[in-house]
């Protein structure tokens, strides 16, 4: 099994990992907004950078860290 996790680069596609509320209940980042994971419905944090990347790249999707890792394992 091979999972590739790397910082985003222009032109990338795939799944953005969003920090999970259960791991970070009270974030210190003012731009983080609590949203539901589109896969599992769990609480996760969406940042300004997430919103910018998703708006400008229709090939990019976002999910909580657990769902993103599961999707990467399934390949």
Structural notes for this entry:
- The chain is of the alpha+beta class and 75 residues long.
- The chain has 2 helices and 4 strands.
- The protein starts with 13 loop residues before the first strand and ends with a helix.
- The model has no long low-confidence stretch (mean pLDDT 87).
List the helices and strands and how they pair.
Blueprint: E1 14-18, E2 33-36, E3 43-46, H1 48-56, E4 60-64, H2 65-74
Parallel strand pairs: 1-4
Antiparallel strand pairs: 2-3
The gyration radius over C-alpha positions equals 12 Å
Note the main sheet: 2 strands, parallel
Q: Tally the helices.
A: 2
**How far is it from the N-terminal to the C-terminal residue, by CA?**
9 Å
Beta-strand residue percentage: 15-25%
- In what order do the strands lie side by side in the largest sheet? 1-4
Describe the global form. Answer: globular
The total beta strand count reads 4
Uncertain segments of ≥5 residues (pLDDT<50)?
none
Kindly state the mean pLDDT as a whole number?
87
The string of secondary-structure elements, in order, is EEEHEH
What structural class do the secondary elements suggest?
A: alpha+beta
Task: Kindly state the percentage of residues in helix.
Answer: 25-40%
Provide a short characterization of the protein structure:
The protein is of the alpha+beta class and 75 residues long. It has helices at 48-56, 65-74, and strands spanning 14-18, 33-36, 43-46, 60-64.
Essential attributes:
alpha+beta; 24% strand; two-stranded antiparallel ribbon
């Amino acid at each position: 099994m091979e999972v590739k996790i790397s910082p985003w680069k222009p032109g990338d596609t795939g799944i953005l990992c969003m920090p999970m509320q259960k791991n970070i209940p009270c974030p210190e980042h003012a731009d983080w907004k609590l949203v539901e994971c589109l896969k599992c419905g769990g609480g996760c944090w969406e940042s300004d950078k997430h919103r910018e990347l998703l708006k400008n790249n229709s090939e990019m999707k976002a999910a909580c860290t657990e769902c993103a890792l599961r999707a990467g394992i399934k390949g």
